[in-house]
């Protein structure tokens, strides 16, 4: 059996994974989608209470939308801002229910490892001719599945960064895990009783932290005993709040403006210059330490310090990853937050996402590794290009079909360093 006689394997049935399925379907390329959860978008459902800062027009893949329209589906208003739960119910689930996608979607199937048939990572002879092999755990046990290519769209939601400044857990972080949450807990919903009338510290300086902070302040207006603390690594908040009215994504700009206002009103207590190295407890509560500095004792901690990719399942593949961002090496200079702060990235696709093992692509949020500022529309463009390359349509794979919105903020030093990438226009 030739390698191209096998289907393309997609890992993850979130928005980007199912977008890949839609493009493969359009190209007439057989595929199978493995989703570890009990439904499409299982990870998305975990942050379903959060309102996205990109409107519907940026969250629907063009090809997937065309397929849905053929079934009578009507797209939501392009300028409305969905919550994660609305994105799931009004777009992703209808897409997963389309007959040609549904029959290829395997929920409750977790990909444990990916390799090449008869080849560990060391073996080179005839490597390119060997199909990919996926070890899959499902309701009937483990089995091996062969594929002509692998598109990993499994995301990073289940692998958040630690609060520790060293990249590893802070001392005591794992010990006090019961009082620490990661990401954006449903503070006004399912987790309300956990945070009501408690002292809560949010750690992080991005949009996830902003969402948690504004929800906690709203909770405090209902439950007056709630106290909101915020810790960031920087010495000031000067560049944290984004471009405000200059941000082309209105909701993203509004979020930063809202948190700045709450801080100015004294409804949030801010700690700056916090590099967390230890968490301790006492009768007064949990205390976060940064060197000799000790923050005010709290009852709960929300860690919103970003996410990292879990690359263990591809340990037997030959990947070319940037050592810092853990993204594909040709993509890394375009997204590295050490040199890029604009929040937009030049459109990219198969050529930037490829690896020495041809036919394996990490796409979506996971392709950014540890770098932030990923937009859904970026993932849709990635898979459009990747699928075109798998179909042999190299012209379409190289073609740019994406314009991203500006954040309205970009410092002069970064602008000079990133001129070729046209980070700011």
Could you walk me through the main structural features you see in this protein, from its secondary elements to its overall organization?
The structure is a single chain. 44% of the residues are buried. The protein is built from 13 helices and 16 strands. It folds into 2 domains: 3-158 and 307-398, FAD/NAD(P)-binding domain, CATH 3.50.50.60; 182-278, 3-Layer(bba) Sandwich (FAD/NAD(P)-binding domain), CATH 3.50.50. The chain has a 5-stranded parallel sheet with strand order 3-2-1-7-16, covered by helices on one side. It has a 5-stranded parallel sheet with strand order 8-15-9-10-11, covered by helices on one side. The protein has a 3-stranded antiparallel sheet with strand order 4-5-6, with no helix packed on it. The radius of gyration is 22 Å and the shape is globular. The longest helix has 16 residues, at 207-222. The protein has 425 residues and is α/β, with parallel strands linked by helices. This is Ferredoxin--NADP reductase. It comes from Achromobacter insolitus. One of its GO terms (molecular function) is ferredoxin-NADP+ reductase activity.
